[in-house]
Amino acid sequence: MAFLIVLLVIFSLTVIPYLNLFYILFSVPAIGFSIANVVMNKKDEYKTKKLDIAILVLSVVAIIPFVGYVAKAVALAFCIVNLNKITKK
């Protein structure tokens, strides 16, 4: 869950247009935290494995400059959905 919160912060910062100029500074750590999030969720007790993999793919796509902005916004939405699923249980 901690990795998911860090991803939420990273993607919410990169959705801000002025901070998006430094997208490579935020994109590389997001890939690492996404991989850690998928690896730590081995048991899949909250049924979020599919969205975790989608966040991983979107964080890799986020390196592409113009498409990455949309990918980061969608990944931010997926992080919020995952946190809602985890906190409801």
Kindly describe this structure.
The chain is mostly helical and 89 residues long. The protein has one domain (2-88). It starts with a helix and ends with a helix. 78% of the residues lie in helices and 0% in strands. The radius of gyration is 12 Å and the shape is elongated. The model has no long low-confidence stretch (mean pLDDT 86).
Summarize the structure.
The chain is 78% helix and 0% strand.
Q: Main β-sheet, in a few words?
A: none
Shape: elongated
The end-to-end span amounts to 13 Å
Structural class: mainly alpha
Proportion of β residues? under 5%
Mean pLDDT: 86
Q: Please work out how many helical segments DSSP would assign.
A: 4
Q: Helicity range of the residues?
A: over 70%
Write the layout of secondary structure elements.
Elements (H helix, E strand, L loop, with lengths): L1 H14 L7 H18 L8 H13 L3 H24 L1
Helix pairs in contact: 1-2, 1-4, 2-3, 3-4
Give the tags.
single chain; 89 residues; mainly alpha
